[in-house]
Amino acid sequence: MTAESGLVVVDKSGGMTSHDVVSRVRRLAGTRKVGHAGTLDPMATGVLVLGVNRATRLLGHLMLTEKGYDATIRLGVSTTTDDAEGEVTATASTDGLEEAVVRAAAGEFVGDLLQVPTAVSAIKVDGKRAYQRVRDGEEVELKARPVTVHELTVRAVRGAEVDLSVRCSSGTYIRAIARDLGARLGVGGHLTALRRTAVGPYDLASARTLDQLGEAPPGLQGVLMPIADAARAAFPSRELDDTQAADVRVGRALDVGLDELTAVFAPDGEFLALYEPRGETAKAVAVFV
């Protein structure tokens, strides 16, 4: 049985790529049309939002929402990848590094920041992924990018290990925070554990492991979040009348005022499209009917 259109929130286990998860869900859903909203490294666990069939078109917009993470940083050791999977490039003693100093330094990574992404990121440099250039032995220097860390909480300092919870904008690299915190403290640092706790409104409470999905009915019936519910959860919503709904079905602009990207619905509750403000009107970004 082929799945309907909708979202499924997966709690990814460690050691798997995001593509591994997509491949498994394709088999379970009985369709090739499965994609994910934002890659998780193999080492990382936690929330991976997948779209099935028509819902794949929501994913690019969901990728722009804020994300939540729990992370552990190891101070005193720097690596080529800024995480535990890379080769050690430098070590330094953390003896005498006081917890209050660590907490104060971590607090400096809150707000609007210019962050240099890790060299093994998926960012393209002249058409080639940065991580592939690193694997090919090339020196990669990426430009700093603006990111926003809305909240950073130090949950524990256990010697050289620092446990953090972070709520941040899309495009923020937690590995880069680990690297930069270590540099700020003068001892280096890298990421040893990462768990994504939320992507926009979707969090671990609504996530299922692949084993749990494997026990679901054929086509993931009853498991997928309907596309209308997913749109209402992720975006502001606007109810339309019959005339406006007819205009949306052919992609016309709407004579309505919107403040931001908005999900618009027919009078019967059917999800029609995403519209964005354009002066005094609203323009279609993606139509789903």
Automatic annotation (TrEMBL):
Keywords: Isomerase, tRNA processing
Limits of the Pseudouridine synthase II N-terminal domain: 26-174
Matches recorded under InterPro entries: PsdUridine_synth_cat_dom_sf, PsdUridine_synth_N, PUA-like_sf, PUA_sf, tRNA_psdUridine_synth_fam2_C, tRNA_psdUridine_synth_TruB, TruB_C
Active site: 41 (nucleophile)
EC top class, as a word: isomerase
Source superkingdom: Bacteria
Every tRNA pseudouridine synthase II TruB subfamily 2 C-terminal domain range: 235-288
Pfam families, per database record: TruB_C, TruB_C_2, TruB_N
Domain tRNA pseudouridylate synthase B C-terminal: 175-216
Enzyme Commission number: 5.4.99.25
Catalysed reactions, semicolon-separated: uridine(55) in tRNA = pseudouridine(55) in tRNA
PANTHER family (UniProt xref): PSEUDOURIDYLATE SYNTHASE TRUB1 (PTHR13767:SF2), TRNA-PSEUDOURIDINE SYNTHASE (PTHR13767)
Functional note: Responsible for synthesis of pseudouridine from uracil-55 in the psi GC loop of transfer RNAs.
HAMAP family membership: TruB_bact
Entry's family note: Belongs to the pseudouridine synthase TruB family. Type 1 subfamily.
Full protein name: tRNA pseudouridine synthase B
